[in-house]
Amino acid sequence: MNHLFEEINFVENPLYESIIADIATKQYSIVEGFFTDDEVSVLRGSLLEKYEEDAFKKAAIGNRVNETIIKSIRGDVILWMDETRASLSEMIFFDRINDLVNYLNRTCFLGILQKEFHYAIYPKGTFYKRHIDTFQNDDRRKLSIVCYLNHEDWQPENGGELVLYLNENGQEEEKVIYPFPGRVVIFESQIIEHEVKPVDTKRLSITGWLKTR
Ligand SMILES: O=C(O)CCC(=O)C(=O)O
Ligand SMILES: [Fe+2]
């Protein structure tokens, strides 16, 4: 019998258990300090370096059609991350995410087989209007994950709050979340409508999705 338990080799992780419990009860979870101050700082450096190299601009060129329509909905600039060519700091990021995904797959039967993440910068004055993260004919996105990489002195007055629109017994309720560095927000992609309020100071993050298939 002992032998059997050794093979299972499962260590309960209290942080992940609290995320799972949150999502099961309210469809979202706010995790403080998912990344340490040092990790946030290294990831922020990596994001800003790529921004200065103009890599974000190049990523946007594919979307030039409908540019004005898109800008009235969302004003962020993004750069998709490539795990197969990850830098040292990006490896730390993906190690954390993969650890969470493995735990979710072992405990929740979510069947997460794919993921996609991008850096995002919201320049001053930009926003992302109320939306849902799944496309009409593609329901593979299960969980949305937003990781904030702002500077340590980020203030609520800087704007850029993430607002989740929750359904509380038929009544809509707004959950306002400030993008403080190190904070990670996870929510059900297919259920929770949300928006990013106008930003007053350049706002930095990594956003991604855990997907089936
Ligand atoms: O940055 C955030 O807080 C949310 C971003 C978002 O909703 C998205 O990229 O779909
Ligand atoms: Fe979104």
Task: Describe the model.
- With 213 residues, this protein is an alpha+beta fold.
- It has a single domain, classed as q2cbj1_9rhob like domain (Jelly Rolls), CATH 2.60.120.620.
- The strands form two sheets. Strands 1-8-5-10-3-2 form a six-stranded antiparallel sheet.
- A hairpin with a 2-residue loop joins strand 6 and strand 7.
- Helix 3 crosses helix 6.
- The longest helix has 20 residues.
- The radius of gyration is 18 Å and the shape is globular.
- The structure holds 2-oxoglutaric acid (AKG) and fe (ii) ion.
- Fe (ii) ion binds next to loops.
Quick take:
The chain has 213 residues and is an alpha+beta fold.
Entry keywords:
6 helices; single chain; alpha+beta; 4-stranded antiparallel sheet; binds fe (ii) ion; binds 2-oxoglutaric acid; Jelly Rolls
SSE topology:
Layout: H1 2-8, H2 14-26, E1 28-31, H3 37-52, H4 55-60, H5 67-73, E2 77-80, H6 88-107, E3 114-122, E4 128-131, E5 141-148, E6 162-168, E7 171-177, E8 184-188, E9 193-196, E10 203-211
Antiparallel strand pairs: 1-8, 2-3, 3-10, 4-9, 5-8, 5-10, 6-7, 6-9
Helix pairs in contact: 3-6
Strand content: 25-35%
Q: Strand order, biggest sheet?
A: 1-8-5-10-3-2
Largest sheet: 6 strands, antiparallel
Q: Report the C-alpha radius of gyration, rounded.
A: 18 Å
Question: Please, what is the average pLDDT?
Answer: 91
Q: Could you state the CATH homologous superfamily?
A: q2cbj1_9rhob like domain
Counting DSSP E segments of at least 2 residues, the number of strands comes to: 10
Keywords: Dioxygenase, Iron, Metal-binding, Oxidoreductase, Vitamin C
Protein name: 2OG-Fe(II) oxygenase
Pfam families: 2OG-FeII_Oxy_3
Cofactor: L-ascorbate
